[in-house]
TrEMBL record:
A cellular component term, taken from the record's GO annotations: endoplasmic reticulum
A UniProt-annotated Pfam family: adh_short
Protein name as catalogued: Uncharacterized protein
Single GO term (MF): acylglycerone-phosphate reductase (NADP+) activity
Family stated for the protein in its record: Belongs to the short-chain dehydrogenases/reductases (SDR) family.
Organism: Rhodofomes roseus
Record-level GO BP terms: phosphatidic acid biosynthetic process; triglyceride catabolic process
Lineage: Eukaryota, Fungi, Dikarya, Basidiomycota, Agaricomycotina
Keywords: NADP, Oxidoreductase
């Protein structure tokens, strides 16, 4: 092939079209950034409780954590380490929907894990109930959970592989006195609810884990994974005196010594508890009921293999009812 005689002139010709290539600019929208990490919403994350510990542990595991509590001030320590905090009263449907809208905007309409942890305690005997306190307990510990699932189910379905975690309690199937019967009943109902939605939501690739515990260190009840929570240190079992007209007033001293001390005796630290729960929830196939915290396995053994009244004997001894019966018998002799 012969080149034109003036081929060398081509080297000095100006191009008819000049292309200028600039540095590429990448704009990361919030929804795109969130896709790089799994997302989780946790209720009841006030400082010192189980939700607090779970939020920190999931954050350490690389999750984009949305931590909620009634007060933002109670979660300042979480915000300081990069955890997203949102004020939420789980019984306020409008506040709940506002949080849902905010999360949906950030994540692109998806949520990978929902942890229903918010709850209330009411440690009094059944005959001492003030129903104005019992009803709010059920609103927070049970009905709000049902509402959370209804509101967030579409975001969970959009995940393609989601999980709902319920903070349950061994009090839901053991006759723990002064826990109270209302609290115990709310947890029993929560376990039943978790069992049912586990079946109903399975076709949509949503796992449900019930975490059963007893309590957590620092005096808070910790109670689909359903987490059966055992003795775990937290801050929900606050000191309370028996009413002056209570049938159990004669055992006030025993109540204070046994109820409050027993709830935290040999309790599992919240951080240890959170590590156990997070490890279970992140498994490809987590257990439907996960027993976490001190003494939960003992409760499982009694519940599974021994007569129901075995619990009565244990609770009578643990909470001083055997001593109380002796006191009543002695008093009847002196009448």
């Amino acid at each position: 092939m012969r080149l034109p005689s003036d081929w060398h002139a081509l080297l000095y010709m100006q191009p008819a079209l000049t292309l200028q290539v600039s540095e590429p600019k990448v704009i990361l929208l919030p929804s795109l950034m969130a896709k790089s990490r799994k997302t989780i919403l946790i209720t009841g994350c006030s400082r010192g409780g189980i939700g607090d510990a779970l939020a920190r542990r999931f954050h350490e595991a690389g999750f984009d954590v949305f931590a909620t509590a009634r007060s933002l001030n109670s979660m300042e320590h979480l915000a300081s380490v990069g955890i997203r905090t949102m004020a939420l009263d789980v019984t306020d449907i409008q506040a709940l929907r506002k949080v849902k809208a905010n999360i949906s905007e950030i994540t692109g309409g998806k949520l990978d894990i929902l942890v229903n942890n918010a709850g209330l305690a009411y440690p009094v005997a059944a005959t001492d109930f003030d129903m104005s306190e019992v009803r709010p307990l059920f609103e927070v510990s049970l009905f709000a959970v049902m509402t959370m699932v209804q509101e967030f189910v579409n975001l969970l379905i959009a995940s393609g592989d989601a999980c709902i975690v319920q903070t349950g309690s061994v009090s839901g199937f053991t006759p723990v006195p002064f826990s109270s019967a209302a609290y115990n009943a709310s947890k029993a109902a929560l376990h039943a609810y978790g069992n049912t939605i586990r079946v109903e939501l399975a076709p949509f690739h949503i796992k449900v884990v019930n975490v059963l515990s007893r309590r957590c260190i620092r005096l808070a009840y910790a109670d689909a994974v359903q987490i059966i929570t055992g003795a775990v240190k937290s801050n929900i079992a606050k000191p309370r005196s028996l009413p002056s007209n209570s049938l159990y007033r004669p055992m006030e001293k025993l109540y204070q010594e046994r109820h409050l001390n027993t709830s935290q005796q040999n309790a599992t630290d919240t951080d240890v508890y959170a590590h156990e729960v997070v490890s279970e929830v992140l498994k490809p196939n987590p257990r439907a009921w996960f027993w976490a915290g001190a003494r939960t396995m003992s409760a499982w053994v009694v519940d599974t293999f021994l007569p129901r009244r075995t619990f009565d004997l244990i609770m009578n001894k643990m909470y001083g009812f055997d001593t109380f019966v002796a006191m009543l018998q002695e008093n009847s002799k002196n009448v």
